[in-house]
Every structure is written in structure tokens, then in C-alpha cells.
Specification:
The complex is a heterodimer of chains A (about 300) and B (about 550). Chain A contains ten helices and two strands, in the order αααββααααααα. Chain A has about 300 residues and is mainly alpha-helical. In chain B, a hairpin with a 2-residue loop joins strand 4 and strand 5. Classes of the chains: A mainly alpha (about 300), B alpha/beta (about 550).
């Protein structure tokens, strides 16, 4: 029983408190959409580095060092493959560092690979932050009106999967208890696995009939469903959306100009963009921290 | 106006040979608390479902069912969904949404109510049922008892005027079941909601019911007050009496005894008003039991079997100082528990929820590896554990396939399996799908599966869960037979009456340790809170009685000196 509870908890892990998640789901969704798109389209060393830095800080803040490193470990693998592969197979670029077996390894190709890998890593990190802040009920709130049945189905799946896992553990335990643990041969275990899959199907069918009865008994489908959770779009949401819209427009222009100017091949130009361009982009990326800081300040003032 | 009326109602499932319900005439008053009981397969579920139009079974029907004066299904679907609430047996499958708050809101969302009305209703309901603390939890994290309370609340939030429940406590342990029934009593008493409930735990529901409806093979064989119901059952000599509350059973034993000895025991001797709860039972006993059988006679020796520890036989299994936990950072579930099992003895381990009872069994059968402690099993002895949910043991399409699954490996034949089924009274069910069996049948089938492995040590986890009173008696007989065949049996259970009736010795697991350990009867006679219903009624009035058999023995001894 305790074990299955642990599985359930793990499945339903919830984010720590953060200021941003108290905002309207639309604001949160748009912010992440803009940030992730910007991070994907700009392949320029400094912008990519900024995005990576911000995503890392936010991921550590939300998920702790352990969770962050876990994600980073997976990303690092992709990062190295992209960087090495691009350096090895792409011979464009004029600054030759050295050659392997007659193939020139250029500085530009290496930089491009590093940059692309960094971009991918930061996008993955942003997604991990998105999952923490934009929980399933927020997503459902935003999209339930557009596709009402999807919201119900997703919620039912969230309920169904832990049940299925728990059930399979119970069956294994019961059979182990009856026949003794670890005494089954490989062939027997395979046969048992097949049987178990079929019985789990039967069990799911049976329980879904009961669930369907329970739904009908409570008037499912008699009329258009309404939503219980109300997320008010208040002045605070309006103010931060205004700031975000402005930031997005300016950043969009800055990034457009910057990516136009910058090219990896044949040689990388020196980066000429005004410092404020980086500043505005950094502000957009660190925007959740700005909200966090403001909330902390308010709290302190409130307490004193 | 009646809440529900059945007017000469009959029902037959398509392709069924006989009618499931026959000429039912029943009217249920508004605000009543009605208990529906009867043997398995007497049509209780069908009767209840016919009240709720949305989930009424499909089949041929005659006559009418009126809900609040209107035939079912004739009113507006929104109104119909809200006015009759239905709670089913299994706590697991009724919850639709993944979080508690969303589950509470589900019915209201279906009705398309505006958010502010919903929020008020959900808040009220959560408050009434004490759900506030787990309001934000996932439904999968809740215990069985909490899930069933949630299912009740999720129905009550729609403000039904009639609440129908189909054996809602059969999958719960006794404490959770009591809590659930208390919540139900509050719904009835404080809100005036009409409650129609089918239940086999009569002990807990008869004292709070206004009316009892007894069904037998699709007909109503009794409708009346709980007191009349008890008298009726006793006068007709129905086997269902074993399900009655302990106070009534004690009163009946005393009255029968008095009749036999032709003693008059006061005015109630001919037509006793059977007490239904412990307080009334004690008052009855103090007033009506003859002086000679009351505390006056102190028996020198209480009716106890010789303590297991004094047994001269060697233990077949010795477990010493067991320590176990599920994770490095979790608390110990077992901390220093020890237990000995002897051949030809039934040992019972009782204890509350989460006291580690099931874990102890899994540790003894080596499914869980212990952190510390030893389990020593006499050489060449086979150990088998029957897990709590018998449904988890069946993987095949028919019972027979399941029983013969491992026959070569364990050295038995199809013939043995058939013999075993016949012995347990399951012969006709051998080609059925295991999932179609009733609670009692499934438990017996699981037992058949274990017994075919001919284990020397049999471990049983909550064998009486979801089993009605009649099947429980059968189960006891089977276990006693197995004991006579020389097996050592360990039963882990919440069901104290069951343990008192079959166990030779008993221990209580508390906080991961064995807190008390004594020979069968002494265990219950020494406890005040944690004891059987019979013992509660007879404490200080009749010494040393924890089961009905004790009471009968006691009366017999008192009579013959």
C-alpha cells in the first residue's frame, strides 16, 4: 500500500510555490510560448547563452539542483553529439583549427555546433519550467472551452494511469505471495506477463463501465458543462501582459536585426549590437524572477 | 408524497431464465432510513438501480417505479440526475476526476451551474464531510475509506432528496465502514435526505435504520421496523440470523435457554424486544437474565483453550524481531515484531489500519526482504500467502483454467482441482469467469487455489473482506477443517468477531510491534475497547464470553451447576 502511494505521489508531484503560477494561465502560457520560440529561432552565441543561463536559473529555482542536474545530464548527451558531429561533418568556415584524417575542423563549425546544442538544451530546460508552472488544470482551463471533451479525457487519464500501475503491482505481489518469489522461470514469467496484460485489460474495462455509470448517475452529458475553477484576469495580469507585449515586440526586433547581422559562415563577424539589446532580452528571460523579487519585496514591506 | 414507490414492479434481464424482481410493492417515506438486506443474488442491486433512471438495468419490466410521485425518467434529465444520488460498492472506480476538488465539482459542472453557485456548494459539502484537509489531493492518494466518503460527498453536492447506496462499505475495513455509516446517518438526520441502503453489516446499520426490507429470490419477504425484523428472523429460523447484531444474538441465546429450562425471565420472555446496540443489550441483560447466570457465578476457570505458548509441539515457523520499511527515508512499518506458528493451530493477528499487518504477512512469506530479523521455517515445509484482494489471483477466463494453471509444477491433477471445488461448494462455478463471482465465492475460489498447493503454513490476509455473514460461516468451517488436517494458519484481520470464533491464539499488532499476545478467548476478555460485540454486551454480566458459543456454554454450565 505504501509503495503504491509513493508511486502516486511521484506521478502527481507538484511545483513549489512560485509567484508566477498565481498569474492567469493565459499570461503564463503566452510567456512560455514567446520565450521558447525566441530561444529556438535565435542562433547567436550571446543570445543563446543568455537563454541558457535564464532557463538554468529558473529550473534550479523551481525544481531544485537535483531535478535540474537530472535534466541537464540528458541534455548534455545531445549537446555533445550535436557539437562534435557538426564540427566533424561540416567543413564550412575559414578558420581551420586542426585536421583529422585530412578533414579540416573549423572554428566556425565548432561554434555553430556548440550554439545549436546550447539552444536545444535551453529549450528543453524552458519546457521543464513550463511543466512546473503551467500545471494540467491550468492547461485544461485554457483549452477546455475550445475542446471540452479533451479536458475530461486528460483528467481521466491522470486518474487512470496510477490505478493501472497499482493494479499490476498488486497482481505481481499476490502471485509472488502465492507461489513464492523468484521461483518462476523466464518462460513462465513471460506467459504470466501476457496473461497479466489481458487481465488488466479486462479489469480496466470492468472498472470503466462502473466509472461510466458513476458519470451518468451524476448527469454527465445532460447539458453543456461549465468549469469550476475561475481564474480572474485582474489588473495585475493586465499590467504584466502589457509589459510582456512591449518586451516581446522590442525583443523580436532586436533578435531580427541581430540574427540578420550575424552569420557563422564563412567567418563570424564581431558582435555589434547595442548593450541595451542584450539587456531587454535578458529582462524578458528573467521576467519570472522579476515577479518573484517584487513579491518578496512586497511581502517584506507588508511585514514591517 | 412518498420518496420512492414500487407499484407491482417486476423485472427480468434479457435472456434470463427467471425474473430477478417479482411483484415488488414497496413505498419509502420521505426522510426515512431504509436498509435493504438479503442473501447474495436476491436482486438487491437490481432493485436499487431501478430507482436511479440513468443507470437502471435494461430488461423487461412490468409495473412502475415512482420517484417523488413521478415515474422514473419522466422528468427533466438535469432534475432527474440531481434528485436521486447513487453510491456504488467499489470505492476505486466511481471517482472520475484526478483531484478531490475536481471530483466534488464534477456533478455540478455536468449540470452547467455557474461558478459562484458551484464554489459555494463545493465549499459547504467539503465542510460538512470534513474533506477540507485533503481537498487539494489526488484521488489516487486517498485511502479506501476516504475515497468512499468522497464518492458520497460528490453525490451529496448535487443536493439529492433521495440517496441510494449499494453495499457501500463492503470493501472497507470496519473502522472506515463505521465512519462512512456515521456520515450517512448525519446526512439522514441533519439534512433529512431519504436514504435507501443495501448492506450486509447489519450490526452497524440496524440501530440507525427506520425500516428494514428483506429480499429473498426477487421477492420482498419482510418489510418493517428493525425490531420486528429481528423477531421475524428468529421466529422463522432463517440462517441469516448470524448476520444480526451481537446484542440481539445474546438476547436470543438467553431467551432460548430460558424457554428450554422453563424458567420465566420476566414479561418479555414470550415476545422479547431484541436489543440492537450494546447499551440496550446490556440494559436488557441486566434486567432479563436470571440471577443465576449473571456475575454471581464466578467461574474458576474461564473457557479458554490452552495457551499456544504452553503447547508441547515445536513451532513450525518462528519469526523473531522483524524490522522492515518501504524506503530508506520512510518510517519502519515493522519494528521488532515476533510471531510463532504451530501446526494444528489458528493464530490471528489483529490491529488497526497501517499497523503493518499485511506487511508482516509479506515479510513472513519472503516477498518483502527484511532489514533485520529472522524467519525460520521448519525444513521442507511449504508456506503460501493468500493476498487481500482475491481478484488479483485470477488471470484466466474460467475458474478451472486458473486452478489448473500450475498443476504439474505443484503435483496435482485436474481431478484434484475438481474435488477441491466440490469440497468448497464451488463445483457449478468451475466454468465461470472468476470476475463474475460474488465476494464470498471469490474468496472461496482463492482459497481453493491456495489449498491445491497443499501448503503446511497458510497465511490469510483479511479473508472476510467483502464476504457476507453466510459465506463467513462457510469460511470458518473450511479453516477449521484445514486446521484439523494439521496445517498452521495465520489470519490477519480487522474482523474481531471472526477472529474470536476461529483463533486458538491472538496477537495485536500496534506500531509495528506485537503489543498483546494471548490465547484466543483471554485476549478478547482482557480487552475493553478492542473486543467483540458479544464481549461488550456480556462484560461483567456474564464472565468470559467473547463469542455466541461462549454464551451458550456459559448458560449450559450455569444450568447444570
Amino acid at each position: 500500500m505504501e509503495e503504491s502511494a509513493a508511486i502516486g505521489n511521484d506521478f502527481a508531484r507538484r511545483a513549489r510555490h512560485n509567484a508566477f503560477s498565481t498569474y492567469h494561465p493565459a499570461v503564463i502560457f503566452c510567456y512560455f510560448a514567446v520565450t521558447i520560440v525566441f530561444s529556438m529561432v535565435t542562433l547567436q552565441p550571446i543570445f543563446t547563452a543568455l537563454s541558457f543561463l535564464a532557463a538554468s536559473c529558473y529550473a534550479i529555482y523551481l525544481r531544485g539542483m537535483r531535478g535540474y542536474l537530472g535534466t541537464l545530464k540528458i541534455c548534455l548527451f545531445a549537446f555533445i553529439i550535436i557539437a562534435v558531429a557538426n564540427a566533424l561533418f561540416n567543413t564550412a568556415g575559414l578558420t581551420v583549427l586542426f585536421s583529422i584524417g585530412g578533414r579540416p575542423i573549423t572554428w566556425e563549425a565548432l561554434a555553430y555546433g556548440l550554439c545549436a546544442g546550447g539552444m536545444l538544451t535551453s529549450v528543453i530546460l524552458w519546457f521543464s519550467c513550463y511543466q512546473e508552472v503551467m500545471t494540467s488544470d491550468k492547461f485544461l482551463y485554457l483549452f477546455a472551452k475550445i475542446v471540452p471533451t479533451v479536458s475530461l479525457v486528460v483528467s481521466m487519464i491522470f486518474r487512470f494511469v496510477p490505478g493501472l500501475i497499482e493494479r499490476s503491482h498488486k497482481i505481481t505481489d499476490s502471485l509472488d505471495a502465492l507461489y513464492g518469489k523468484g521461483k518462476a522461470s523466464v518462460a513462465q514469467r513471460r506467459d504470466r506477463g501476457v496473461l497479466m496484460a489481458s487481465i488488466l485489460m479486462g479489469w480496466s474495462m470492468e472498472s470503466s463501465i462502473e466509472t461510466a455509470d458513476s458519470m451518468r448517475a451524476r448527469g454527465f452529458g445532460v447539458t453543456q458543462r461549465s468549469a469550476y475553477k475561475r481564474n480572474r484576469f485582474d489588473t495585475r495580469d493586465a499590467a504584466s501582459s502589457a509589459v510582456l507585449v512591449m518586451l516581446s515586440i522590442v525583443c523580436g526586433l532586436v533578435l531580427y536585426v541581430a540574427t540578420k547581422q550575424f552569420m557563422f559562415y564563412p567567418t563570424m563577424p564581431t558582435l555589434k549590437i547595442f548593450w541595451w539589446g542584450y539587456g531587454v532580452y535578458a529582462f524578458l528571460l528573467f521576467f519570472p524572477f522579476y515577479l518573484e523579487g517584487r513579491e518578496t519585496l512586497q511581502w517584506k514591506r507588508f511585514r514591517s | 408524497m412518498e420518496a420512492v414507490s414500487f407499484l407491482d414492479f417486476s423485472f427480468r434481464y434479457p435472456q434470463a431464465r427467471r425474473t430477478t424482481l417479482e411483484n415488488i410493492d414497496l413505498s419509502i417515506a420521505r426522510g426515512a432510513f431504509v436498509v435493504l438486506c438479503g442473501p447474495t443474488g436476491s436482486g438487491k442491486t437490481t432493485l436499487l438501480r431501478c430507482i436511479k433512471h440513468e443507470i437502471a438495468p435494461v430488461g423487461a419490466r412490468l409495473g412502475e417505479v415512482l420517484v417523488l410521485g413521478h415515474p422514473t425518467g419522466s422528468s427533466d434529465p438535469r432534475q432527474s440526475a440531481a434528485q436521486v444520488g447513487f453510491v456504488m460498492q467499489d470505492p476505486e472506480n466511481q471517482a472520475v476526476m484526478d483531484t478531490v476538488w475536481h471530483e466534488l465539482a464534477f456533478g455540478l459542472e455536468n449540470l452547467g451551474l455557474p461558478t459562484d453557485i458551484m464554489q459555494r456548494r463545493v465549499a459547504e459539502t467539503a465542510h460538512f464531510f470534513g474533506i477540507g484537509e485533503w481537498f487539494e489531493k489526488r484521488t489516487s492518494e486517498l485511502s479506501g475509506g476516504q475515497k468512499q466518503i468522497l464518492n458520497l460527498a460528490a453525490v451529496m453536492v448535487m443536493q439529492p432528496s433521495i440517496l441510494v447506496l449499494d453495499e457501500p462499505t463492503s470493501q472497507l475495513d470496519p473502522i472506515a465502514a463505521k465512519e462512512f455509516l456515521q456520515a450517512l446517518e448525519r446526512v439522514n438526520r441533519e439534512l433529512g435526505t431519504t436514504v435507501v441502503l443495501s448492506e450486509h453489516r447489519l450490526e452497524d446499520v440496524l440501530p440507525i435504520a427506520d425500516e428494514v426490507v428483506f429480499t429473498e429470490s426477487g421477492k420482498l419477504s419482510f418489510v418493517g421496523t428493525p425490531h420486528d425484523f429481528v423477531s421475524e428472523l428468529y421466529s422463522s429460523g432463517d440462517s441469516f440470523t448470524s448476520a444480526l447484531p451481537a446484542p440481539a444474538q445474546v438476547a436470543h441465546a438467553v431467551t432460548t435457554d430460558a424457554r428450554e429450562t422453563r424458567e420465566t425471565i420476566g414479561v418479555v420472555a414470550t415476545e422479547p424486544a431484541y436489543p440492537l446496540d450494546v447499551r440496550a443489550g446490556r440494559a436488557w441483560l441486566a434486567e432479563n437474565a436470571p440471577e443465576s447466570i449473571r456475575a454471581g457465578i464466578r467461574r474458576e476457570e474461564p473457557v479458554t483453550d490452552s495457551p499456544a505458548t504452553a503447547s508441547h509441539e515445536e513451532p513450525i515457523l518462528t519469526a523473531k524481531n522483524l524490522w522492515f520499511r518501504y524506503g530508506r527515508n520512510l518510517d519502519f512499518v515493522l519494528c521488532g515484531a515476533s510471531v510463532d506458528l504451530y501446526p494444528r493451530k489458528i493464530h490471528a493477528v489483529v490491529g488497526g489500519n497501517g499497523s503493518g499487518k499485511s506487511t508482516l504477512l509479506y515479510a513472513l512469506s519472503a516477498v518483502r526482504r527484511l532489514e533485520r530479523g529472522t524467519v525460520k521455517c521448519a525444513s521442507g515445509k511449504r508456506i503460501a500467502l493468500l493476498a487481500q484482494d482475491p481478484k488479483t489471483l485470477f488471470l484466466h477466463d474460467t475458474l478451472m483454467q486458473d486452478l489448473t494453471e500450475d498443476c504439474e509444477k505443484f503435483g496435482y491433477t485436474r481431478g484434484d482441482a475438481e474435488e477441491m471445488l466440490a469440497r468448497l461448494g464451488l463445483a457449478e462455478l468451475s466454468e465461470r469467469h472468476p470476475y463474475d463471482l460474488s465476494g464470498g465465492e471469490m474468496q472461496k475460489a482463492a482459497l481453493a487455489k491456495v489449498l491445491l498447493l497443499s501448503p503446511d503454513i497458510l497465511l490469510l490476509d483479511e479473508p472476510t473482506k467483502g464476504v457476507d455473514a453466510f459465506a463467513k460461516q462457510e469460511l470458518m468451517e473450511i479453516l477449521r477443517e484445514q486446521r484439523e488436517e494439521g496445517r498452521a494458519i495465520l489470519v490477519v484481520s480487522h474482523d474481531l468477531d471472526f477472529c474470536a470464533q476461529i483463533a486458538d491464539s491472538c496477537s495485536m499488532l500496534f506500531n509495528g510491534e506485537i503489543a498483546a499476545n494471548a490465547a484466543g478467548r483471554t485476549f478478547f476478555n482482557d480487552n475493553l475497547f478492542y473486543t467483540t460485540g458479544v464481549n461488550r454486551v456480556t462484560r461483567d454480566l456474564m464472565q468470559g464470553c467473547s463469542t455466541l458459543t461462549d454464551v451458550v456454554d456459559h448458560l449450559h454450565k450455569a444450568r447444570h451447576g
